[in-house]
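Example for tutorial group B:
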């Protein structure tokens, strides 16, 4: 278990460039399995989850070549599908959430796909019903081995397009079904589809490979199946969750920071949600400039004067992955806000650590927390803590950078799952942070 030692209370300054998006990269990497041709992908983040998925692809027989920083080519012309039934795969496949998305492409192209119960953040129940109900609608036979927690789908005669109304707008579920349906016979319509930029990017990539997908960006996707897909080149968008994390970091440390090349048109509600906390964000070309909030920042109220609530919703709503950041930033705002995490049941428990540091937070129930900001009149105290999940981890790191004294965060592997080389990048803008293995 590695550790960060963070000396808080220093102003940061400079530019930071976001990495490629973790959740997009996980989808895009799985899509390379759909074609025997070469697929070249750039802006792939060098993070634990993505590297684990690349390793799984390698073990499946995908020929992988590193072409430069974040740039790889993949050729899936001779796959070793026996790997899917090996003990090694049971271990490796369960190491991350994103591995679930190899099932759709394999089912579409080879008529079978298997997966152990995938890992990812322990932030509440994370069911997979939407994925498998979708595959069943496309004609696959489903089996689940409860003891081994191993899922399997088979369609030896191929998949047939169908209409489906998803029970929830699952991000990885939609990606999985879209990939399978691209190689099905006939037309598939997915209503209540998720439509995050991750999915828009995946659909654009599939169309570049010869798929026929329309409705991109909406919650109704129509996919006319094709018999084969070909190679393509694709570039992953900047990581909007990292961008939101750096906005929070700038506000909490009252630092002037420029976040470079953010792809403003793909940020949805993110800038305006931070503005509701009173944070000033300037659009300078495709960068976000955050001035030093020397006088602090004041949380807005709703038009009728009522108490601000920030909650998550499927895209184009506010992403649940940034609520932990919103929460930590609010601890030093002027005013009060309720954070309502609707999707996940166990993602707010990390507030205990912030309360230990002196933050005024009432955890109303597992989904809702009320934060009463200090307006920098009282600074958080340094502490020692364990990072429970990726976004709580980065939130605690931001809290530590804004706190007085030296904090220690254990289990930083959680942070490394999603943030590339974070200590080095933060040191480059003036943070005092040391990693010990
Ligand atoms: C690898 C990856 O891409 N992970 C992301 C993906 O996970 P993932 O695809 O696993 O998440 P899902 O979209 O399936 O759902 C996440 C949770 O939200 C609930 N739910 C979902 C949709 C809905 O309309 N209502 C609802 O309550 C689900 O029951 C589940 O508990 O999407 C999540 C939701 O944006 C993000 O937190 C994860 O970072
Ligand atoms: C919940 C997250 O990731 P995963 O779905 O990979 O666990 C996240 O990125 O915040």
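The residue assignment follows.
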């Amino acid at each position: 278990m590695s550790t960060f030692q963070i000396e808080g209370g220093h102003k940061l300054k400079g530019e930071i460039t976001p990495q490629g998006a973790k959740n997009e990269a996980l989808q895009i990497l799985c899509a390379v399995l759909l074609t025997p041709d070469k697929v070249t992908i750039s802006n792939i983040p060098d993070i634990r989850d993505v590297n684990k998925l690349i390793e799984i692809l390698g073990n499946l027989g995908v020929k992988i070549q590193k072409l430069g920083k974040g740039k790889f080519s993949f050729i899936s012309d001779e796959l070793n599908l026996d790997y899917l039934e090996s003990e090694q795969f049971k271990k490796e496949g369960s190491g991350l959430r994103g591995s679930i998305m190899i099932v759709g492409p394999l089912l579409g192209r080879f008529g079978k796909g298997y997966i152990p119960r995938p890992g990812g953040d322990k932030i509440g129940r994370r069911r997979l019903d939407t994925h498998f109900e979708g595959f069943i609608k496309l004609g696959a036979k489903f089996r689940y081995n409860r003891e081994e927690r191993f899922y399997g789908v088979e369609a030896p005669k191929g998949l047939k397009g169908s209409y489906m109304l998803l029970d929830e707008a699952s991000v990885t579920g939609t990606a999985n079904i879209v990939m399978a349906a691209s190689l099905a016979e006939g037309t598939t319509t997915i209503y209540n589809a998720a439509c995050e930029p991750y999915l828009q990017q995946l659909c654009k990539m599939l169309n570049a490979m010869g798929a026929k997908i329309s409705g991109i960006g909406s919650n109704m996707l129509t996919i006319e199946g094709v018999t084969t897909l070909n190679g393509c080149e694709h570039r992953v968008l900047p990581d909007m969750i990292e961008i939101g994390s750096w906005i929070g970091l700038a506000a909490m440390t009252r630092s002037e920071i420029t976040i470079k090349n953010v792809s403003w048109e793909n940020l949805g509600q993110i800038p305006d949600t931070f503005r509701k906390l009173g944070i000033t964000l300037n659009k300078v070309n495709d960068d976000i400039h955050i001035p030093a909030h020397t006088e602090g920042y004041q949380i807005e109220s709703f038009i009728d004067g009522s108490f601000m609530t920030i909650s998550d919703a499927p895209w184009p709503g506010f992403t649940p992955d940034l609520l932990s950041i919103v929460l930590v930033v609010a601890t030093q705002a002027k005013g009060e806000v309720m954070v309502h995490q609707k999707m996940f049941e166990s993602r707010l428990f990390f507030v205990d650590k912030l309360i230990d540091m002196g933050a005024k937070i009432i955890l109303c129930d597992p989904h809702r927390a009320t934060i009463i900001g200090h307006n920098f009149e009282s600074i958080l105290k340094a502490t020692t803590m364990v990072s429970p999940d990726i976004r709580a981890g980065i939130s605690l790191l931001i809290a530590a950078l804004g706190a007085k004294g030296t904090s220690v965060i254990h289990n930083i592997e959680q942070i490394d799952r999603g943030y590339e080389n974070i200590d080095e990048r933060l040191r480059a803008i003036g943070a005092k942070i040391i990693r010990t293995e």
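The pocket of uridine-diphosphate-N-acetylglucosamine (ligand 1) is lined by residues 23, 26, 97-98, 124-126, 168-173, 194, 314, 319-321, 343-344 (CB under 6 Å). Compare this with the pattern of hydrophobic and polar residues in the output above.
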